[in-house]
Design brief:
The protein is an alpha+beta fold. The protein is built from 3 helices and 10 strands.
Length: 189
């Protein structure tokens, strides 16, 4: 009796599974970059780095020199700390020279990179260069905000990427806020 029911059960199960498909249901856009639902602290005391990142973006720990990747959809922020033995830039003149050298280095690494803006940041506990531009990242043309802070024998880099068409809104809602939240202290390692 059970053997006789087995083919009928298989046919009924197949019919149920086929009926489960709903052509009106669309797949979620995994590349969509969500607005932040809020911000939380991401602290890397070993590396002397603290910043605020969106609560609804995932954090993936990195391997030295990369500290972490914060990402959602096609939006991505990389956090790096590179030890430096040379004197770090501190004055306006030194930071201008660092900015020029950094732009040349980026354009050498990525000949497609075009600077759209740059600035020097001089605050009591933060000396940095920030560059915004368009270049190729992992084979895709993307806009980028890159903050390079110099302190405690290292260069801390916060690189934010987003597709060109979405960059302005993602930058305003997320990337610029994360970059501005950067706090640097003496590494604990």
């Amino acid at each position: 009796m059970l053997r006789a029911l087995a083919p009928l059960t298989a046919v009924a199960l197949t019919a149920v599974l086929v009926a489960c498909g709903n052509d009106k249901t669309t797949a979620p856009k995994v590349s969509a970059i969500p607005k932040p639902k809020g911000f939380r602290d991401a602290e890397y005391t070993k590396d002397g780095i603290r910043l605020r990142v969106p609560t609804n973006w995932r954090i993936v720990p990195g391997e030295t020199p990369q500290i972490a990747t914060i990402a959602a959809g096609d939006g991505q922020i990389g956090v790096w700390r590179f030890p430096r033995k040379e004197p770090l830039p501190e004055t306006q003149i030194q930071l201008n020279a660092a900015r020029n050298a950094l732009i040349l280095q980026v354009q050498k690494r990525d000949p497609t990179f075009t600077v759209t803006s740059s600035r020097i940041v001089i605050k009591p506990r933060l000396k940095a260069v920030e560059i915004i531009g368009i270049g190729t990242n992992q084979g895709l043309q993307r806009s980028q905000r890159s903050l390079h802070a110099y302190a405690y024998g290292g260069e801390i880099v916060v690189d934010g990427f987003a597709p060109i068409k979405q960059f302005d809104s993602v930058d305003k809602q997320t990337l610029s806020k994360v970059a501005r939240s950067l706090k640097v202290s003496k590494p604990q390692s």
